[in-house]
Amino acid sequence: MTRIAVLTSGGDAPGMNAAVRAVVRKGIYLGCEVYAVKEGFRGLLTDDIVPMNLGSVADIIQRGGTILRTARCEEFKTPEGQARGIGNLRRRGIDGVIVIGGEGSMRGALVLAKAGIAAVGVPGTIDNDIPCTDYTIGFDTAVATACAAIDKIRDTATSHQRTFIIELMGRHSGAIALAAGLAAGAESILLPERPYDLDDICRRLEKGRQRGKLHSIILVAEGVASAYEIAEEIKQRTKQDNRVIVLGHLQRGGSPTAFDRILASRMASEAVDLVLAGAGGKLVVYSQGKFSSVDIEYALSQPANFDDSAYRLTKILSI
Ligand code: ATP
To answer: Residue 14's domain spans which residues?
Structure first.
């Protein structure tokens, strides 16, 4: 009997529950005892670790957030905290851990792997900012949520002939803003990965107005600047009123899309296989239509993904 555990860490992302369900069910199917660590790495330190059964993950595949709860645990970044967490796992005879979370969480998984625990990472973050994988769990849902919100705002923008400045999540990654902007036909998209030119944005607004355009949607990823600051600058330059919407945590919640549920289930299944093969330190990835794994250390050394061709296309389509 092998004992394995699963935890969710960092920001919650829709689809994490589907991943937890798949870890528990596949682990049990393969004859493991499966445990859940509550609140990310914090639960390792506080020994908040509970046994799971088939029923503990019933009725969660469609739910957003994470039933295991999540946390940011600074103490796990210290050698003392790490030793305590690893000690709790050893005492319980747990020799494999599946860590579902973002880039920081993968660093935590690496700490466990280096201590000899078969720790495997599953990329779960709405930001889609983990190198080596085309998609992270939660991104597709966050983009769909943002796109639906922009569509609604566009209705009122058109009716009132207004410019809306919409702030989307993404401190270091503009992936949500870029994908939602392409999907919703935004006029301009401001991303942390690329410089922006407010004069050019205002020129486009003016050109649009001259050809009778009734509305404009400008997206700002939160890492660029506050949408309120951008809106004020635009107002001063164009002498036209505008409106600001900050979508905020709305983008994290909600039922995961079918894509995210499938991605989560398949990635989690791969992760269980890797843990049982003793392949600690691996990150499950989905790239060019295939599931595979890479070393976490390698992935974290790679530059962040940025889809430059999508970015150029948004500029072409919004002329
Ligand atoms: P998101 O992309 O949603 O922000 P994330 O996983 O990147 O998710 P972080 O807050 O960076 O979120 O990391 C989550 C947790 O992972 C931290 O609170 C900490 O417990 C652990 N962690 C992060 N970096 C390290 C590290 N260098 N060593 C050990 N543990 C770490």
So the answer is: 3-138+256-300
